[in-house]
Design brief:
- The protein is an alpha/beta fold.
- It has 15 helices and 12 strands.
- The strands form 2 sheets. The chain has a 10-stranded mixed sheet, with helices on both faces.
- β6 and β7 form a beta hairpin.
- The longest helix has 34 residues.
- The structure holds 3-isopropylmalic acid (IPM) and magnesium ion.
- The site of magnesium ion has 3 residues, from α10.
Amino acid sequence: MYIATNQLIDNSVDTAVEKFRQIILEQLQRVEKLMSDTPWTDFKALDTIEIGVCPGDGIGIEISKQAQRILEILLKDATDQGSVHFRLIEGLTIENRAKHHKAIPDDVLHELKACNVILKGPTTTPQKGDQWPNIESANVAMRRELDLFANVRPVHIPQQGIDWSFFRENTEGAYVLGSRGINIGNDVSVDFKVITEPGAERIIRLAFEFAKAKNKTRVTVVTKSNIIKTTDGRFSAKAREISEEYPGITLDEWYIDIMTAKLLDPARRSDFQVLVMPNLYGDILTDEAAQIQGGVGTAGSANIGKNWAMFEAIHGSAPRMVDEGRAQYADPSSMIKASALLLHHIGQVESATRLEKALDICAQFERKVVLTGRPNGATAEAYADYVLEWVTNPELEATWEQYVKGK
Ligand code: IPM
Ligand code: MG
């Protein structure tokens, strides 16, 4: 009996070691690819910008529809002139992904790659025990396949002086091997976290470049490098190294636990400007920041890579709201914010700014139409109409200025 058990353990150790070896080899290959210098696509130099729209699942269908409607209105001239083209991509639903047993079916990936930028509604991520096969998250797969390494999430509360820009590393950390953990025997499970030199470098540099372009004076790196010494240690050392190249910008480092507390501290929180961090910390911290802004339904997210960019809500597809028949009352602000980020990215800065100001007035200042997520509040459609009213109002700029000054 004793010998038989030992034999079993030896076998699973051997299997685990072999899997680990494979993982290491793959990561070395990935890092080599990262080091080859792919140039950035210059969106302003393209004759036509192809905008893919994936409605997603659950409340995604309703809120994407509203965001797309607003985008189409703002880009009407560009579409008429042929400098922008919309393409509807319908195959990213959980039903279709489950049918193909793939996070992103091949034909859908092909269509995504034919676009320059993508507006993506929330997609359902299967979880052990639910009705779906346990396929990988479509978000995570898309970030990897299109190498969307920077997840940029702005959180902005003008009346409290809060203007945070989160730069979440989006392709490695705890996510890169999140579906590849190893069980050894019955009692031990191991997951992996990976931080690479070029992976850390590119996100940290982007955060510093953003800070420089926006005249920000501070970049905050968030890690747990006192405990997770190897991977987070590399990330924080890289941040220190890169900060040397930006003399006008101060770098400070906070550990993730105290950082979550400090975002709630009114005496300190408005001092944070640009924050950069590994994947999982960014996932957690940006939900907290969005909640401070008014809920996860109010926050949009830009997933930026060198050749593609994808814009989405920071939240999921809210199956509970759908089951309870409340999908039409979902807050479309997250997807509308994502659309504003998309407009910035393709160089439509004036429309982007108008949309952001309209959202500030609707969500934070005037609040004439209020969403509750239930029938006692507005529908997503009515709310999008309200935002559109402000976008097209000639008094938008002046009204926004007045509100901000009178904070
Ligand atoms: C996000 C989401 C995703 C993530 C999920 C849906 C896979 O929470 O975009 O923050 O964990 O990154
Ligand atoms: Mg998240």
